[in-house]
Amino acid sequence: MVGAPETPLDLRFRALGIPVRVHPFFWLVAAMMGWRDQNLPIVALWVGCVFLSILVHEYGHGLMARTFRESPSILLWGMGGLCYSQGERQTPLERLLVILAGPGAGFVLAFLVMVVATVFAGVTPDEHLGVIASQLGLGHGPASVLDKLDSPMKFGAYYFLMRINILWGLVNLLPIWPLDGGQGAQIVLTQLDHARGRRWVHIISLMVSGMLAVVAALWADQLFLAVFFGVFAFMNYQMLQTLHQEQLFGIERDDWWRG
């Protein structure tokens, strides 16, 4: 596998025919993101939920790639997860399906979590919707869910898995390159306008990520999200500069999506 440098502390395994490597920075970054009041059991639960959710997401990409007779591999590292496959053998439609299968797998996992909570704890569909709405900033969520999931660990597992797979899944589908939504938008726009599609997706990505960075910093008071979207805004600005230089030198890349 390419990507993060290999270390003696890497965790390696193979499941469903796909090799997986977990870089030690993955655990460190996940723990830092979930550090709350130095509650080590809850932090450990958070890290486990992040590991399961990102692994399921990457397996969504990988299993879809395998349906197209490819040999994917998965890397979990400090910034999340990557799924490598033989993109040069993919058509644009196949590439789009591989991209969308990742968030789709996460939504399926969230649905299964809701089913388990309903069957074993009696959480109702309305209560599930209330929790989802609260995670989207549209309410506080029904307190009855906490009563039904009668321990901090049970509620934490439910809440974390719902938050990661629904909220992060929706963010990942935003038209911001290189998130899955941005990569999917690039495929569609390039098929519609081969000459200008790549440029347009980076313009849209720059505008959306820049706007969200400003909103997070000034109105939502979310420094992490401001930095998160700010990094993507800068990346897309750099890509626009690169495209400008390619145009000046007459370089045309029509196989960008095959990597």
What does this structure look like?
The protein is α+β, with helices and mostly antiparallel strands. The chain folds into 2 domains: 1-173, no CATH class; 175-259. Helix content is 64%, strand content 8%. It contains 9 helices and 4 strands, in the order E-E-H-H-E-E-H-H-H-H-H-H-H. The chain has helices spanning 24-33, 40-67, 92-121, 125-135, 144-148, 152-172, 180-192, 197-218, 223-248; strands at residues 11-15, 18-22, 73-77, 80-84. Strands 1-2-3-4 form a 4-stranded mixed beta sheet. Helix 2 (40-67) packs across helix 3, helix 3 (92-121) runs antiparallel to helix 6 and helix 8 (197-218) packs antiparallel against helix 9 (223-248). The radius of gyration is 20 Å and the shape is globular. It starts with 10 loop residues before the first strand and ends in an 11-residue tail after the last helix.
What is the helix content?
55-70%
**How much of the polypeptide forms β-strand, as a percent range?**
5-15%
Strand order of the largest sheet: 1-2-3-4
Q: Structural class of the helix and strand makeup?
A: alpha+beta
Helix count, DSSP H or I runs of 4 or more residues: 9
Separation of the first and last Cα atoms: 14 Å
